[in-house]
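As agreed, record minuted below.
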Amino acid sequence: MVDNTENQEDFMDDDFEGSFEDLFENSLKELKAGNVVVGTVVQVNPDSVVVDVGGKSEGLIPINEFVNEQGQVKTDIKVGDQFDVLIERTENENGLISLSKEKADRQKIWNALEENAVVEGRILSRIKGGLSVDIGVNAFLPGSQVDLRPVRNLDKMLGETYEFKIIKLNKRRGNIVLSRRVLLEEQRESMRGDTLKQLEEGQVVEGAVKNLTDYGAFIDLGGIDGLLHITDMSWGRVTHPSDILNVGDKINVKILKFDRDKERVSLGLKQIAPDPWLDVEAKFPVGRKVTGKVVSLTDYGAFIELEEGVEGLIHVSEMSWTKRIKHPNKVLNIGDEVESVVLALDIPNRRISLGLKQVEPNPWEVVGEKFPIGTIIEGQVKNITDFGIFVGVDEGIDGLVHISDLSWTKRVKHPSELYKKGDVVRAVVLNIDRENERFSLGVKQLLSDPWESIPVRYTPGTIIRGQVTSVTDFGIFLEVEEGIEGLIHVSEISKEKVDTPKNFAKVGEDLEAVVLHVDTVERKIALSIKHLSDQKEKAEVDAFLGAQKNATSNFGDLLQGAMHKAGGEKDGE
């Protein structure tokens, strides 16, 4: 048997020597700047890790390059652990190779990235035009690619993790552009077909508020949008959709109408709950006192929310028994809790008429008992008009003294000649009209009517003297006593023809005249000058005849006395 031991040893030596040279050459090739090689931990220091990369070469890596997914330094690094490292420099002044685990990891990520690939990343910060995203390396997410619709507040997305699609990749320049919108559109499109098959009118489905407008909200039902009109959001009053909804809210809605061909969906939110108007008649019967909150004010009244979806109107005319309310904001404010009385119901038109003043008794119902006709009251002048003065009688009730009831005798052109606001006035209650809410007072009625005694004091034929107050084409007005005038008609001025009274007398002159006639109904005294001389003559004759009568009477009395005396003397004899 041939001994081949020596030959085998020679073969093994030759083979080993060749393999060692290859390994050595390969190691020299790997240990070039920019290459990624496998390193083994040989020592862990507090601030660094010593790594063997072969070829009798070791390198130093800062401990802060060994971090977990949360960005915290790992505490479980041990001798023997292996990982990829990037050779930055083959040897520094200490004879150590300059290594980087962080750059090796980054290069591995870059090598694995491809355009149109889907990656996961965390949004780091806002930058010009969009957001910075960490996908292992920094990438750019344009603002237009964040969502299906423009996002106004990008800050709320900071720190969030999403999936993105790489839409542009330039490894040489190190640029990566991402899109989240593309993935959402793909997802939305895949959902669209399934959603269209499932939708039916009357169905209640869940959706997400996608956008708000002045007239409603668009709800994403899963690849298809439905319109929730503002009138279908609540049975109550909604000023703007943002009052009850926010973008992103998950809500249940009812499908009111669905046009499958045009892919149009009308939604309702209030229709999920029962219509509150179904039992309004039972809850709020006419005459019942109710409490609600003022939700709106208009020129003509205030709207009161009695419960969600049920409102009533207090008309401005129903706010006070006594005051004239020009605008509801003089009495109520939005948000006020107010008690009122149900006046009328119109269920088909969803209207409730409420009254505020009806909560309190109507003062006009009791004012007649408090102030019967003939009562003398005292109050302040509240207002002065062309036709009279308003005097405060009771809480919220003013009485009117008409200009014709200010004086029996004076001709009052305007009440302001006699009174001003704030004056205290005494007056007599003349009439109370509860239905029309009118309270009539009189000042002149405090005194007796002088015209009641004028026919007695100024009988026809009475000669009077007065002052001329006015001269007109038809006659002369003569004041016979304070406030009482008589008229000397042009035909009663002279027995001769008078062309115009203005040539006969002037205002302020004193004249004598005789009373012809007194009309107490029209309150007129007819006077005459031309009959004055006749009346004076008659008066003189009457006076003379009266004197004659008195003289005859006196003579008879004397004669009778003398005869009586003579008879007495004869009896004495």
Residues 52 and 501 are 144 Å apart (CA to CA).
